[in-house]
Amino acid sequence: MNFKESIRSSIKSLFHNKLRSLLTMLGVIIGIFSVITLTSIGEGLKQEVGSQVESLGANLLYVVPGKIQMGPPKKGESQLSVQDGHFNDSPNVLTYDDVLLLKGQDNIATATGSLTSIDRLDDLNIFVSTTGVDEDFNKINKLDFAHGRFINGDERKNKAKVAVIGQQANIELFNNQNSIGKSFKINGQDYRVIGILKYKEPENLGPQAENINTKIYLPITDVLDRKADKTVGQILVQAPSSQDVEAAATVIKNTLSQNHPEGNFTVLKQKDILKAINNILGALTAGLGGIAAISLLVGGIGIMNIMLVSVTERTKEIGIRKAIGAKRRDILVQFLIEAVFLSLIGGLLGLLAGITGARLLPQILPNINTAVSMPAVITALVFALLVGIFFGVYPALKAAKLDPIEALRSE
């Protein structure tokens, strides 16, 4: 029996028991469907996060207190060093003087600092989070205003009692009326509203994750006056273009080292942040795919079970084939082809179902984005093929080793 005849005989045998073949493939179909669907969700999340981080600006740099190492240690560095964004316990040494020092340096378009404080909002008798910023904060973040304007340089220098508030803050303080020029009290002092921000969908990803609608922005110098250590939370720097990021990072390090020779600060670039996030989400996607692949093993066990039943049912047929000249290799190949066909056809059907499911899922659940990954598709199909071979070998060997005389005597 040549190879073509083995394939033809295997297909004929599988079609002879259509329902059983379909039920046997069901485990592989579900396994591949799960792998494709879950990995597409992971890839979709990866693309969404990457898009959000990149939308913040490829030319932005963040200066944060403490030492952070993004990614694995470089060659020659200790493997024990802090990795992937873990902070050490260095004290915050960044001050607004550092921000002023960076402004106007070569390869730096804009530099700003931000400082979050908890203050008493007397009008509502609650404590709220306020953010101290300077005039350059809006140049980088490009806030959308419903009314008014942002804090200017004079108001920052004079520690003016002015505020820019988000839409939700305006609703709760002034019933969503145009409150420009009106005042509200923070810590017993009057603050005049100079700007009201437009509503914006809350963001929950990226280094600037926040609900801007609840924000109350004040001049950073005013907020610093209430803080004992006079430090800022982080410094945000904008390079003239994405090509100037490396040069800007060097300028930042050299400039801030004048005030902080011990180097207790870290300059983060967007690509470093994106790389760290991709590493985490890549591991998450691989984990989801691995969990789904377990169902493929269950499908493989189902194939082996049915193939063993098939060998028992077709013992007499095997005996006749051997009696008319079929070799052990012919029987082995035929049963192995049947097992591989079951897993491969199941894999293709599962792939079709998985791709369809990945495309339909965002329509059913709009908050979920999916992206079918070609490496995941190839890996799933290869894994399905290997499952067919691995779980088909034992039944095929059992069939091939049958004694023809004993097989012919079987009922």
Number of helical segments with 4 or more residues: 13
State which percent range the strand residues make up: 5-15%
Structural class: alpha+beta
Helix content: 40-55%
Termini separation comes to 25 Å
Q: How many distinct beta strands?
A: 10
Radius of gyration: 33 Å
Structure description:
It is a single chain. With 411 residues, the protein is α+β, with helices and mostly antiparallel strands. It is 54% helix and 15% strand. The protein is built from 13 helices and ten strands. It has helices at 3-16, 18-55, 96-102, 137-141, 153-157, 167-174, 220-224, 245-259, 270-313, 315-323, 328-364, 374-400, 404-409, and strands spanning 60-65, 110-121, 126-133, 145-148, 162-165, 183-186, 189-197, 216-219, 234-238, 265-269. Strands 1, 2, 3, 4, 5, 6, 7, 8, 9 and 10 form a ten-stranded mixed beta sheet that branches. A hairpin with a 2-residue loop joins strand 6 (183-186) and strand 7. Helix 11 (328-364) runs antiparallel to helix 12 (374-400). It is elongated and about 105 Å long. Mean pLDDT is 83; it is low at 79-88.
